[in-house]
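Fold it.
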Amino acid sequence: MSRDNINAVEQPSRRKAAAETSGRDLYLDAAWHLGGINRKEQEKSRHR
């Protein structure tokens, strides 16, 4: 749940858009989450 809260803080408009619609946007929202996770992993690798 904390991960969702962090994403809600980072992209409130995106979360709001996903909540207002369904189906297609839920798929896009899932893809956005995967992109955010990949971005964070890339940032971790830079610090090494």
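The chain has one domain: 2-47.
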